[in-house]
Design brief:
The chain is an alpha+beta fold. The protein is built from three helices and four strands, in the order βαββααβ.
Amino acid sequence: MDMNDKNVYSRKATLSLKISEFEVPPMQDLLIVGKKAPIGPEAVRRMAEALSPEQFTLIKMDHPKIEAVLLRNSLLQMLDEKLLMGIITEEAERMISDSMVLRSELKIAVTVQREVELS
């Protein structure tokens, strides 16, 4: 295959594998529940509430494949819900099927830079 050919096709994948000790509850920062997932959003909410009382919020969605997202409350305190859900939805809809439940770790680092007048 000639590398100068405009029809050269390449597919690549970069993997980042994070391995950590199994935790109870078996959740991280968020769960994305598909519309036809074997466990529904209310069951997910009850599980989270039983294992980590008052630590998660269930946000139901109007989306073709995603029924709801269960988010750690601390994330909602750091970022606006609409902004956060937009990012989560955009990334998840590329890989989720309506029968899946995805779990995700989400770390937010806020950077602040201020300028002050010197006297």
